[in-house]
Write a structure and sequence with these properties.
Layout lengths: L2 H31 L9 H11 L3 H10 L4 E6 L5 E7 L10 E5 L10 H10 L3 E5 L18 H16 L4 E6 L1 H10 L7 E7 L5 H12 L7 H13 L8 H5 L6 E6 L8 H9 L5 E6 L7 H4 L1 H17 L4
Helix pairs in contact: 1-8, 5-6
Length: 323
Amino acid sequence: MTLKKLISPLLIVLSAVLMNSCLAGKYMSDFALTPTPHGVDDIERTRHKADSLMPGSTAWYDGLKAEGILKDTTITGYRNFKIHACYVPAKDPATANGTAIVVHGYGDNHYVFLYLVRMYRDEFNYNVLFPDLQYHGYSEGDHIQMGWYDRFDVERWITVAHDVFNDDFMVLHGVSMGAACVMMTSGDPLPEYVRCFVEDCGYASVVAQFNHNRKQSFGFIPPDVLQSASLVTRHRHGWGFWEASSLDQLANCDRPMLFIHGDADDFVPFSHLQRNYNAKINGYKEMWVAEGAVHANAFAKHPEEYKKHVADFLEKVHNGTAK
């Protein structure tokens, strides 16, 4: 067989492989970043989820909103999409201990983590702002940004919250993708009044998380499809999976952080906790392992212990012992 005759079928096979890889990459990018339903179409499911995590949450929310205490606001976010948030003053505004920004997870919205909003407002006496990330809730957006570009919107909300409440103490607290967003934000230059961070079950990087999901749900898909999906995402949205790293951002963080993770978490693997913790090489840090908690379940599994760990951490930051 001549070299020319050998190369022709090889090119056909290679073209087919590349075409299949591109199609698989497009499918994976679509599946992960543009799921349906989403946003406003998915609000009712998440209202129900909020009540399942802490009974009475939506009644609490609706009551404060009816009284004009809890309010909505919108701003133009990163990439010029309109983004939405709610904010509520501390239970006793005159003696507020600071402001918390609570960041929700993948496929959720500002309703879902009302248990944290209630914890900060009613028990810790903090003002709270809690946004909808792009492509979630009442916010616009053309895809889920996995916390990476979301951090730029969170940085805008930091300024908004400070303008509203005028505090010199702010904590960012996120769960799951929201926790990854908080870790990613922590490595950027931030105002001095952003004093500390709480991350609950966040992933070490987008590529690590997607690779775990690939093996967990699509074991037959080879790992190199992630490269193709990342290229598709970069072409469409301007970022790739490998750059979106909590670990890299944590290396630049020098402010206190509390790391929380359930040891029964098999969605964002428990191993990510130690990786995240080790990546933060500057400044104060502490870790709490929620025994027996599955993904994003630490509060539901151990509510009083959860509140105590967060309250004790915040007190250390307030009194200067967490440096």
